[in-house]
Amino acid sequence: MPDGAATPPQAPSEPGATPEPGGVPAADGGGAGGGEAREVAGAEAGAEARWVTAVRVVAAVAGGLALFTAFPPLDWWPCAPLGIGLVAGSLYRTRPRRAAWLGYLAGAVFLLPTVAWVRTIGDDVWLMLVGTESLFYAAMAVLASYVYRLPAWPLWFGGLWVLMEWARGLVPIGGFPWARAGFSQGESMFTSYAALGGVPLVSFAVALCGALLAHVVLGGRATVVRRAVPLALALAVPVLGVMIPRPGDEGRTVNIGIVQGNVPGQGMYALGDEPAVVLRNHANETKRLAQAVRDGKLPKPDLVVLPENSTDIDPYRDETARRIIHDSVQDVGVPTLVGAVVAIGDEHRATRSLVWDPVTGPGDYYDKQHLVPFGEYTPFKEIVLALWERASLVGRQSIAGDRPGDLKMGPVTVGAVNCYEVAYDDTVRGTVRAGGTPLVVQTNNASYALSNLPPQQLAMSKLRAVEHNRAVVTAATTGISAYVTPDGKVSWQTRERVADMNVVKVPVRTQETLATRVGALPEWALMVMGAAAAGVAAWRGRRRVDRMRNG
């Protein structure tokens, strides 16, 4: 409802709604027929309440589905503000308890198809993940039910959305920052906000736009002029995003070879059961790239990037694996970033980005910092292993690295980011601040090939490119390998489940964006704003109830 607009009387059909000041129902006058009148009024109120609840449910479900369609592979990005607007509308002026289950419903409807790629591991894991993550949407909805009492509530709602996504990316067991609203905006009118405040600011802009659209529809008896204000603001948010300036080219480039070797299997057994087959596939594809360079079909690379897990044999411990890798790197003749899972002692391992020199062999490396729970390590190991036999497939428990992925390779220092980590703001930002340019994302999506995971991960690389003014090169075992320009445009990409390679000319940018410099400050400002607004609204509501009781 526009600020200052006339407030319609609180309908008795919404027992969960918060009455406006002065909206206390008048006392019944009694007399003959008074009891009968109250019964009729109560029946009508109950029927209308059921109708209103049904509308809320439809809006929550439609909002969750609309938000899903904004994500890859559909990429209907305008559906993100539309979906969030429907969710905001479903929660409008309802009680916290009702808001909780409506928020949970919207979150579950959104997440079920969005993270359907988890079904590769098992439907039970997929449902448990969705069930857990939907709790964050329920908590956000409870807080949002309070801010509707305040002027400018779409602003506070946007802050609460950022708070919810921050919490979801933090807990439990390291968080799950996938499917944040900002990640649906890889190439949209909202994308440039990433250069100012990172992915959280993109999510805020989308949520604010959606809440403003809901504000227009929920304006009650407001005049056309007063409805026009939030509508104009809703349209201004994406338009202003297009107008945000971006850093320009600096005139320096580097040629990067990208190798996608493919794997023989699929699903949980994507790497197959033949020893060293993944290693041979990537070594052979590296040699094919070297031959294409010699034949003049491709320009000579300054460095080559292989995917995460491009060798399924530890080259530190296996001489044959070491020889195969060194032979292929000598053939291409330039430093090559190899993805390897290496043993740490007798019980642990590390997911490693390893610089392999054609003369001196293995050298500097980066160990993955954000590990995949139940994929690279097993939380609550004894309990989980007792309940799920599949958990034993993790094998050795991974150890997280403790430093950013700035690795000197030929004429540049690349910023190594490993697969799952591209979803984590702090990891990518730390690598850029350490001097990484361009960014290199090594990933192994073999278990999730042809699902909606690979395109979602590529969309994250688009946002990261704009956020930090860095080109992003992605090398994947089965796809999607790609090159994303600093403007967030995909310049080249592979198909999935094929062997492929290429050499791309990549701009080297060193200028930092505001988002890189200020880090998490915009996110914290937005979260505190939303939480403070919810606290103020709850306190005011409690004082009003106390006055009514004592009046």
From TrEMBL:
Pathway noted in the entry: Protein modification; lipoprotein biosynthesis (N-acyl transfer)
Keyword Cell membrane: yes
Domain CN hydrolase: 259-508
Signal peptide: none
One Pfam match: CN_hydrolase
Ranges where the record places region Disordered: 1-40
Keywords in alphabetical order: Acyltransferase, Cell membrane, Membrane, Transferase, Transmembrane, Transmembrane helix
Transmembrane segments: 74-92, 99-119, 125-148, 155-173, 193-216, 228-245, 521-539
Localization, UniProt: Cell membrane
Highest taxon of source: Bacteria
Main location: membrane
Family statement drawn from the similarity comment of this UniProt entry: Belongs to the CN hydrolase family. Apolipoprotein N-acyltransferase subfamily.
Protein name per UniProt: Apolipoprotein N-acyltransferase
Record organism: Nonomuraea antimicrobica
